[in-house]
Design brief:
Layout lengths: L1 H123 L15 E5 L6 H8 L3 H8 L12 E5 L3
Antiparallel strand pairs: 1-2
Length: 189
């Protein structure tokens, strides 16, 4: 009795083992098929990536060419603008030069008229004294020229002679006495 049980258990084990082998073989076949399908999909994806990279490179070249074309147009536009500016400057320079020449002529005429007037005034003036006499009193006072003073008023106010003041201070042009000058007044009080 024990043998038939073992025999039945053995057959069950063999059947189970056969079924397990068949099941494992099926599983293995299924896995192999899955791997084969995945390999195909990876290959297809690799091809799509290569296509996208080629498209991307072509697009990059197009963008670069377009940018270069726009840059060239911009450089051309800039050159045209510079040429226009240069022309405007040349035109403006001619107008400015003509205006400046007219103003310079007007200024020159006014300067010449002023010089002529000054020359006429010099002709009417007395000659400037360049030699001085030592014939004046050795004693006197110092005097600082104030606003509104002339040599004549200084001589009158100090009781000195005009010629003595001129000779003592060696004043070549009596009209050129300035405020703040210190003069020696011979015989002055």
């Amino acid at each position: 009795m024990f043998k038939p049980f073992l025999w039945g258990a053995g057959l069950a084990l063999i059947a189970l083992s056969a079924h397990a082998q068949q099941s494992a073989g099926t599983e293995l076949a299924n896995l192999r098929e899955d791997v084969r399908l995945l390999t195909q999909k990876v290959g297809a994806l690799s091809l799509k990536v290569e296509d996208l990279e080629r498209d991307n490179e072509a697009l990059r070249k197009q963008v670069a060419a377009s940018a270069q074309s726009q840059a060239n147009a911009t450089v051309q536009q800039l050159n045209a603008a510079v040429a226009d500016l240069n022309q405007a400057i040349k035109t403006g320079d001619a107008a400015t030069a003509a205006s400046a020449a007219a103003q310079i002529k007007k200024l020159g005429d006014a300067t010449n008229a002023a010089l002529d007037s000054l020359a006429k005034g010099q002709a009417q003036r007395a000659a400037v004294q360049t030699t001085f006499s030592d014939n004046f009193p050795a004693e006197g006072v110092s005097y600082t020229v104030q606003k509104g003073d002339t040599l004549s008023t200084i001589a009158r106010n100090t009781g000195a002679k005009l010629s003595d003041i001129i000779n003592a201070n060696k004043i070549a042009d009596p009209t050129k006495v300035r405020v703040g000058d210190t003069l020696f007044i011979p015989g002055g009080k």
